[in-house]
Amino acid sequence: TSYLSDICTFRSVSLVVDHGAYTPCGIAAHELGHNLGVRDHDGSGIAKNCPASKNCIMSPSSALIDQTNLEHSFQFSECSIDQIEKLLRAKDADHTNCLTKPRRVPQIHMFIKPLLATMPGEVTDVHAQCRELYGEKSFMCWCYLGKCVYDEKAPSGIDDCPYPDLPPPGANCNDARAITCKNPLFRNKCCQSCNKDFSKEKVCEDTSIKINGLLCKDLVSTYGQHSCSAGEVEQYCCKSCQDALSGNTCEDSSIRINDLGCQEFILRYGAQACATENIRTYCCSSCQSATQSSPSSVKSIRKTGSITVIQVSSSSLKSSCEDNAMIRISGMDCSGYVSLYLDQACRQPTIRQHCCGSCLPYD
Questions:
Q1: What DSSP state is assigned to residue 98?
Q2: What are the residue boundaries of the Peptidase M12B domain, all occurrences included (predicted)?
Q3: Is the four-CA dihedral 246, 252, 253, 258 of positive or negative sign?
């Protein structure tokens, strides 16, 4: 208990009962706040706009300190600070503010100062503090594989990760990867899984997330190595991007060119179609096969099930034959215009010149 707003008077004292385990420290700070001018607790009176649930020093009652209130438990709220400032300004106005006057250091300070060099936790360890608070059989619980054990039995661990994985909503700590552990929220909740040295292979691997509804391998296979130029794709699909950029993987994407799959398109128009970078990227496997075989003339047309295999001469394509992406014909790009008017469009020399790629099927 303490007198309210009686700092710098003969009643500037407080009475605090020591219940052990350093609990009086918070109580003493609370009572000092009253003595310095805090009349209303957080959440009431003129301090109603400062929630008591934040557990600041001047909350009406003290709650157990946890991650939700740790930031505030050792601070005065804004409402408390306003009340203290109001009293001190009044003391300044009537020249009774003793806190601004130099005073001779009392002898008691000389006795206490050496003791402050040792932190309380160095005198009384955490287990002794638990016993003082909860009884002789209490100890600090370290959770290991879901069991509460005394710390000597637990494996060594980092100081900021004494508890088991508690994954955030929608996450799984088994997904801990070098990249996911860089996320502060994931690392905080899955610190046990993240507390390891990732191998060189593990540092660069694909995550299990989906981008545009596709897993990493499918995404890079579908859109080619160009998709890796997007920062997030390269970050979350490290291995697939690394393989694509280094040439370790060479697969056809599932896109269709002029309504043809890669294999059918390359077999139809020959290896020279692969001179176009986009086609070479999206149809890597077919281009690789075509380049190695390099057919020089039409040899056969055969059907295998639903797949038509056409071997053609590579001379049917120019070495560089692409649509002019800058032009519009009746408001449409080359692909749209040619797909609408088919070979009739390509009979016009100007359109054939600017829409070379789209007109290839009608040569």
A1: G
A2: 1-88
A3: positive
Neighbours of 184 (CB within 10 A): 8
Q: Sketch the domain layout of the chain as residue ranges.
A: 24-103, 153-203, 216-246, 262-316, 322-363
* Amino acid identity, position 340: L
**Distance (Å, whole) CA 139 – CA 154:** 13
Number of Cβ atoms within 10 Å of the Cβ of 31:
19
For the chain (363 residues), the mean pLDDT of every run of 10, in chain order, is 79 80 82 91 93 91 74 90 93 88 69 78 80 82 64 56 72 77 79 76 73 80 72 77 72 76 80 75 77 44 38 40 78 82 83 81 68
Q: Do the Cβ atoms of 266 and 283 come closer than 8 Å?
A: yes
Q: Which residues are CB-neighbours of 92 under 8 A, at least 6 positions away?
A: 100
The values of phi and psi at residue 74, to 5°, are -115, 25
Say how far apart CA 291 and CA 273 lie, in whole Å.
Answer: 10
Question: pTM of this prediction?
Answer: 0.38
Residues acting as catalytic residues: 31
